[in-house]
Amino acid sequence: MIRYVVGRLFLILPVLFGVSVVVFMLVRLIPGNPAIAILGERATPQLVAQVENQLGLNLPIWRQYVRFLGNAWRGDFGASFYYQESAWRLTLERIPITLTLIAFAALLGLAIAVPFAMVAAIRRESVLDHAIRLVFTGAIGIPSFWLGIILALVLSVRVRLFPIGGAGSGGLDTLWHLALPALTIALHISPSLVRALRSSLIEVMNSDYVTTGLAMGLRPAMLLFSYLLRNGLTPLITVLSVNTGWLIGGTIIIEQVFGIPGVGSLLITSILTRDYTIVQFVTLVLAVLVILVNLMTDLAYAALDPRVSFQG
Amino acid sequence: MISGAAIARGLPTIRRFSSTAGWPFRVGIAGILVIALLAALAPVLLPYDPSALGLAGGLQPPSRAHPFGTDQLGRDILTRVLYAARIDLQIGTIGVIIPLVAGVVIGLFAGYYGRWFDAVVGRVIDVVTAFPFLVLVLAIVAMLGPGLRNFYIAISLVSWVAYARIVRGEALSVRGREYMLAARSLGYSNARIMFRHLLPNVVAQAFVFGMSDFVLDILAGASLGFFGLGVQPPTPEWGVMIAQGRNFIVTAPWVVIFPGLAIVVTSFFVSLIGDGLADTIRRVNPV
């Protein structure tokens, strides 16, 4: 087990290296002189020289990268020109609310997807199965920002069931404020959750222990439910981890739509204000988040299923 | 292994295909054709100019003269939705074709030649897939600047990876099959083996993914438009229309509802095509 964990941790290193290169190269995509682009209207020859110096733009590219890594090692990812604050602090203080929203949305997404996927898998190829698949096929193309606006109009403005936006004042009030955004994201990811869960459940239906169970007269729903629960929720973990990117993408958009002060709305605001340092750092943070989720998924597999760590 | 040779004779044409594919495929194709036709014929079908400001005033509810109502500037929303279809269908098409071609070729080379090239491609795939799709696209557009051209560049840089991964995996799995060995023992050139024998057998899954990618691109393009980073107003684009109508949604919800429905309906038809393709492939070539 320990050997598996260590081996898995080592596998992250090349990916992290690659991610750092991509994030470093991002700023080099800026057409023209990045220093002028970053300063915008404030650009004076002295300031441009100062920023060039700060970013090391005069150095050869590999030395710029080494410098970028060195700074990153010390936790220095530059500062926001817009907020006049360090990228690290600006982003980290917004992470808790974003993670809360992601977790909330993931739970709601599963709550929506599991019953539908189970019905579709049990009544496979029935009218009900086809109807569920058709509805969720239609739901794939619902733009999350549009859905958010419509839900806010109906449930917050017309019915006044939910607050309109913002993150509330902490604790339960925050959860209350996050309910509608989380529901929007959950509906946004539910089609791919249903799809993936349905096919994984159908695979289970064809396995020997289900056949035995059915032969013994157990109900299919009970069998599937015990599979979901007893096998340590592995299928749910898989389905969620595969959709992490989709989930994060939805969260970014929805944060901006509902005015939630998280990492996602920071990213959009920074893009609009050309706050390149922040865009760069948030991109890095979100990629690291995906890597960590994948790592935790693999470790969870290994913990739940001893065969994984033996196969290595 | 029923169909190596059958598929190798070339991908079925849409007509031959649709006779074997189920109704979802046919409905999907028909739906997209109708939308494309309406978009192309919009100037003939509708009396309005998409950017002409209405003299009658803005935010009129749906009526016989304006079935989808008018927006805050008095422009006919149905007209704008149809003109926007041109842009959004283009986003889907270009957003699929460039990455599909690049990804398939790179994946094919990696899967066929293996060795160092495959190792490099494999690592690049790992790295790019570590980024959430939308985040990397947004980040690249942030650097290059807003606009449709830069969106295409961003999509091309990010999406090819998914196709390369699919084709590489498929190519690796068929590399040792008999027909590949046969082609090699007949002394065919690598290029001939790769493109005449390997490609037709591995490309199907890439096309299936291409359909969901089409939806993904439309959604991404509309999201960027919504945030002011994609197509720039006054050009009609569904995401841009939703963004502009947002401030009037309480009094005039139709301004937001119809462009959104256009995205949902278009994506639905494209997804049906994808499902139909996937079903047919499963039936023709069961694993």
What report would you give on this structure?
The complex is a heterodimer of chains A (312) and B (287). Helices cover 78% and strands 0% of the residues of chain A. With 312 residues, chain A is mostly helical. Chain A is globular and about 80 Å long. The mean pLDDT of chain A is 87. With 287 residues, chain B is mostly helical. Chain B contains twelve helices and no strands. Chain B is elongated. At the A-B interface, α1, α7, α8, α13 and α14 of A face α5, α6, α10, α11 and α12 of B.
Primary descriptors:
heterodimer, A: 312 residues, mainly alpha, 0% strand, B: 287 residues, MetI-like fold, 12 helices
Topology:
The complex is a heterodimer of chains A (312) and B (287).
Chain A: H1 2-28, H2 34-39, H3 45-55, H4 61-73, H5 87-92, H6 95-122, H7 127-140, H8 144-158, H9 172-205, H10 208-215, H11 220-230, H12 234-242, H13 244-258, H14 263-272, H15 276-304, H16 306-311
Chain B: H1 4-8, H2 14-20, H3 23-45, H4 77-113, H5 115-130, H6 133-144, H7 148-174, H8 178-185, H9 190-202, H10 204-226, H11 238-245, H12 254-284
Helix pairs in contact in B: 3-4, 3-12, 4-5, 4-7, 4-9, 4-10, 4-12, 5-7, 6-7, 7-9, 7-10, 8-9, 10-11, 10-12, 11-12
How many E strands of chain A?
Answer: 0
Give the CATH class of chain B: Mainly Alpha
Multimerization status:
heterodimer
Q: What's the CATH superfamily of chain B, by name?
A: MetI-like
Task: Specify Rg of chain B, calculated over alpha carbons.
Answer: 22 Å
Greatest interface and its residue counts? Answer: A-B, 49 and 52 residues
- Strand-residue proportion of chain B: under 5%
Number of discrete helical segments of chain A? 16
**Overall number of structural domains of chain B:** 1
**What is CATH's topology name of chain B?**
MetI-like fold
Would you summarize the structure shown here?
Chain A is mainly α and 312 residues long. Chain A has 16 helices and no strands.
